[in-house]
C-alpha cells in the first residue's frame, strides 16, 4: 500500500467514526508529506519525520517555513511540520481549529536544544538508575575488525561499502539453513561506522539501532530486479532504500529512468533467472514494504524469524573475528 492510499484509508476510517479533526504522524519524509497534504482530503496537520528536513529557524535560510501550509484537494490549508533530526530541536506548534476541523490560527515556535538548557534533575536521576548496567553491556567487547567499517551516511546510501557487505553477509549466514541464498537490506538502516580495533556491543547498536529482525521471503528473479530498481531509484537524494546485498552482484546506471536503472544482476556468476524462485533474507521493515519495497509484500512464504539484526551481526563478528570485509565490486555503477 502506498503512503497516499494508506492515508486515504485511515482518513476514511476515522471519518466513519465521527472524527472531524485529523492529525497525521508520519515517517515518510517531507516530500511525501506534502504529497499527502495535496492529494488526501480531510487532514488538518501532518507531523513528519524521516527526511531530516530543517524548517524555519532550524536553518540559515528559513525555508521551508515552520510551519508550512499546503493547500489540500478541497482548498483548505494543511499544516506540515518536522523538527529536523537527532533531538537538535523541539517542535512546538499551537493550532486552533473551527468545528469543521479547518485551521483558523497557527503559531510555530520550535526551540533549539542547547547545552545551556537546564536539565530536569528528576529525569537525570532516572537515567542514572539505568545507565550503569547499560554502560556495562555497551562496553562488552564481542570481537574485532582489522579495518575501518564504513557506515558513512552518504556512502551507505549510494554505493557498496564494506560495512554494508558485512551486515548483508551476516544476514545470509544466519539464514542459509532456512534456504536463503540472497540478502538485501536497506542502507538507511545502517547508521554509523566502526573504526578498526575492538568491536563492542554499543558500537553494533549504534550501527543498527532500530531493533529490526531478520525476515525471509520467496521472490522470483524478476521481483528481485524490481526490488533492486526500487533500491537505486532515489540514489540522488540519499534515500535510505539503497540496497546493500549478499549472494548476488548487480550493476546500475543512475542516468536511466528511476524504475529501470538496474542493467544486470548475476547470481553465482550467471544472469539471474527472472522466472526462478529465490529465498531472500531481508529485514522486517522491508518485508512490510518499508522504503518503497512493496514488491516484498507480494512475495511468498513470508516469515519474520524474530532474530534481531544487531544480535545476528554481533554473532557473525564474534565467529569471524577479526573481520576484514572488503568492497569487492558486487555493486557496480
Automatic annotation (TrEMBL):
A single Pfam family it belongs to is 5_nucleotid_C
Any one GO CC term of the record: extracellular region
State the organism of origin.
Chloroflexus aggregans
PANTHER family for the chain: 5'-NUCLEOTIDASE (PTHR11575:SF24), 5'-NUCLEOTIDASE-RELATED (PTHR11575)
The molecule here is called: Multifunctional 2',3'-cyclic-nucleotide 2'-phosphodiesterase/5'-nucleotidase/3'-nucleotidase
Every copy of the 5'-Nucleotidase C-terminal domain together lies at 141-297
Q: Name one GO biological process term.
A: nucleotide catabolic process
Q: Where in the cell is it found?
A: Secreted
Amino acid at each position: 500500500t502506498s503512503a497516499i492510499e494508506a492515508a486515504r484509508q485511515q482518513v476514511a476510517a476515522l471519518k466513519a467514526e465521527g472524527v472531524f479533526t485529523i492529525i497525521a504522524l508520519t515517517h515518510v519524509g517531507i516530500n511525501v508529506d506534502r504529497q499527502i497534504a495535496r492529494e488526501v482530503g480531510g487532514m488538518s496537520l501532518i507531523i513528519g519525520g524521516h527526511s531530516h528536513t530543517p524548517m524555519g529557524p532550524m536553518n540559515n535560510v528559513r525555508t521551508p517555513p515552520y510551519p508550512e501550509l499546503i493547500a489540500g484537494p478541497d482548498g483548505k490549508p494543511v499544516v506540515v511540520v518536522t523538527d529536523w533530526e537527532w533531538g537538535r530541536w523541539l517542535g512546538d506548534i499551537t493550532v486552533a481549529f473551527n468545528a469543521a476541523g479547518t485551521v483558523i490560527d497557527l503559531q510555530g515556535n520550535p526551540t533549539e536544544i542547547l547545552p545551556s538548557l537546564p536539565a530536569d534533575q528528576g529525569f537525570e536521576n532516572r537515567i542514572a538508575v539505568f545507565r550503569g548496567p547499560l554502560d556495562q553491556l555497551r562496553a562488552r567487547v564481542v570481537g574485532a575488525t582489522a579495518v575501518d567499517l564504513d557506515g558513512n551516511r552518504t556512502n551507505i546510501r549510494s554505493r557498496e561499502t564494506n560495512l554494508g557487505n558485512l551486515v548483508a553477509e551476516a544476514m545470509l549466514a544466519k539464514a542459509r539453513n532456512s534456504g536463503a541464498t540472497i540478502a538485501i537490506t536497506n542502507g538507511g538502516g545502517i547508521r554509523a561506522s566502526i573504526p578498526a580495533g575492538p568491536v563492542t556491543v554499543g558500537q553494533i547498536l549504534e550501527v543498527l539501532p532500530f531493533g529490526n529482525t531478520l525476515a525471509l521471503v520467496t521472490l522470483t528473479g524478476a521481483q528481485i530486479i524490481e526490488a533492486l530498481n526500487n533500491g537505486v531509484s532515489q540514489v540522488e537524494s540519499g534515500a535510505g532504500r539503497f540496497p546493500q546485498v549478499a549472494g548476488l552482484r548487480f550493476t546500475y546506471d543512475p542516468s536511466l529512468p528511476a524504475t529501470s536503472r538496474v542493467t544486470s544482476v548475476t547470481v553465482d556468476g550467471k544472469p539471474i533467472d527472472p522466472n526462478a524462485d529465490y529465498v531472500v533474507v531481508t529485514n522486517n521493515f522491508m518485508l512490510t514494504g518499508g522504503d518503497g519495497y512493496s514488491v516484498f509484500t507480494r512475495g511468498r512464504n513470508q516469515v519474520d524469524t524474530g532474530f534481531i539484526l544487531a544480535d545476528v551481526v554481533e554473532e557473525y563478528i564474534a565467529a569471524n573475528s577479526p573481520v576484514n570485509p572488503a568492497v569487492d565490486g558486487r555493486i557496480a555503477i
